[in-house]
Design a protein that fits this description.
Layout (H helix, E strand, L loop, with lengths): L1 E9 L8 E7 L6 E2 L4 H5 L19 E4 L4 E4 L2 E2 H7 L2 H10 L5 H12 L8 H5 L8 H16 L8 H27 L12 H10 L10 H13 L7 H10 L5 H12 L7 H15 L5 H9 L20 H16 L6 H15 L1 H5 L7 H11 L6 H21 L28
Antiparallel strand pairs: 1-2, 2-3, 4-5, 5-6
The structure holds s-citryldethia Coenzyme A.
């Protein structure tokens, strides 16, 4: 953080003493006004529910420019990473700050691949769930339960323990997601196979059965790997902020990541891809493209509570760069699978076209986000709709861990403890029951 020559001066119309607030500049993006001394000097808090104007930390990991529709992981544009790297290269970059060289890449890949199994006891944990439980309910439980197997060797303040916990979580998430899926379909779990790629291993654990050899389709494998890259990290979004706040108490990383999984589940966040596909299915049932106008009228009617899922973003007021890459991946996968006439994909493109020309959306700068096309491509791959957010959580785990480790490694970090504007009852006495 570089102190700016410019200061902010806070003055009060009632003659209370004014206060100079330092301003800091980052390498790119908006400056920040440092209010850390505000309460101590003025007895007043700032007020920012939803954190629309609040920077919660300084970070070197991911940068988003919402106006340009730009996303950088450690300075590298997502468009270049999606084409030139694979997901484990991206994990290495997010965790350690640089892309790996050949030797580093080989070592990291083999470390991850050699931690893909989970303790055999985990399958008995799964048995406690109903077979029709939502995979995100199961995954929240499974990730938290990992701390029952490793908590004794994972001191969040020990850098070596943080390192092995990161490898374990990245390695085991695909195994856990696949187990959650197999449990719901009543099929036996498939153990990881260490001679496959990260995405190929996940596909086999998801779709193979003990009855026959499973052949990984390289086009699908590459598409899935790209989906993981696109979802890997995204600055201080709701689930990442949850992981930071949870981890700031010093809890173990498995518990903090489980909190992130729980937050991501919400339909306004990672649950939007599942909600988006369900929305496309509903419009299809209404009559498809012919009914898009009617659906859009509902969206514009505030009282309807209907939103165009997969559209809009707190930061992107331009096209989400991930949505563009996801749409390309959609084309590739549907083409490979002979589904280029997929009605939902055609419907999604028609919805996008209409929305981008409609004043309601233009005025509010609502563009497709990462969730708009991701559901269509996952459905084409054979991933059930209810598992979409679990795939998002799988991919985002590395981002959550990188952000958590960055916070813990900062000697200045403190437990997060926001305050409030209290608008409730003033102090009053309890009346005897007979008088209430
Ligand atoms: C993700 O933060 C991240 O980085 C998240 C994420 C990540 O990688 O971690 O990018 C992943 O969560 C993507 C977002 C997925 N969610 C959805 O697709 C759900 C639909 N989108 C909306 O719920 C909404 O756009 C949010 C939650 C994403 C953003 O909400 P904001 O920033 O609080 O904006 P808002 O709700 O105040 O909307 C501003 C206006 C409002 O209208 P007015 O009151 O000004 O008239 O836009 C409208 C909203 O009603 N609006 C929408 C809309 N999104 C916003 N109207 C219709 N459909 C939508 N999708």
């Amino acid at each position: 953080m570089t102190p700016s020559d410019v200061k902010a001066t806070l003055s009060f119309s009632d003659g209370s003493p004014s206060m100079d607030l330092p301003i800091y500049k980052g390498t790119i993006g908006p400056d920040v006004i440092d209010i850390r001394k505000l309460y101590g000097q003025t007895g007043k808090f700032t007020y920012d529910p939803g954190f629309l104007s609040t920077a919660s930390c300084n970070s070197t990991i991911t940068y988003i420019d919402g106006d340009k529709g730009e996303l950088l992981y450690r300075g590298y544009p997502i468009e270049q990473l999606a084409v030139n790297c694979d997901y484990l290269d991206t994990c290495y970059l997010l965790l350690y700050g640089e892309l790996p060289n050949t030797e580093q890449r080989g070592t990291f890949h083999s470390r991850v691949i050699n931690h893909t199994m989970v303790n055999e006891q985990m399958q008995f944990f799964l048995r406690g769930f109903r077979r029709d439980a939502h995979p995100m309910a199961v995954l929240t439980g499974l990730v938290g339960a990992l701390s029952a197997f490793y908590h004794d060797s994972t001191d969040i303040n020990n850098p070596e323990h943080r390192e092995i916990a990161a490898i374990r979580l990245i390695a085991k998430m695909p195994t856990l997601v696949a187990m959650a899926y197999k449990y719901t379909v009543g099929q036996p779990y498939i153990y990881p196979k260490n001679d496959l790629s990260y995405a190929g291993n996940f596909m086999r654990m998801m779709f193979a059965t003990p009855c026959e050899e499973y052949k990984v389709n390289p086009v699908i494998e590459r598409a899935l790997d790209r989906i993981f890259i696109l979802h890997a990290d995204h600055e201080q979004n709701a689930s990442t902020s949850t992981v930071r706040l949870c981890g700031s108490s010093g809890t173990n990383p498995f518990a903090a990541i489980a909190a992130g999984v729980a937050c991501l589940w919400g339909p306004s966040h990672g649950g939007a891809n599942e909600a988006c596909l369900n929305m496309l299915g509903d419009i299809q049932k209404m009559g498809g493209v012919a009914k898009v106008g009617e659906f859009m009228s509902q969206v514009k009617d505030k009282n309807s509570g209907v939103k165009l899922m997969g559209f809009g973003h707190r930061v992107y007021k331009n096209y989400d760069p991930r949505a563009k890459l996801m749409r390309e991946t959609c084309h590739e996968v549907l083409g490979e699978l002979g589904l280029h006439n997929d009605p939902l994909f055609k419907l999604a493109m028609e919805l996008e076209k209409i929305a981008l020309e409609d004043d309601y959306f233009v005025a509010r700068k609502l563009y497709p986000n990462v969730d708009f096309y991701s559901g269509i491509v996952q459905r084409a791959i054979g991933i059930p709709v209810s598992l979409f957010t679990a795939i998002f959580a799988l991919a985002r785990t590395v981002g959550w861990i990188a952000q958590l480790n960055e916070m813990i490694a900062d000697p200045e970090y403190k437990i997060g403890r926001p305050r409030q504007l209290f608008v409730g009852a003033e102090k009053r006495d309890v009346k005897p029951l007979a008088e209430r």
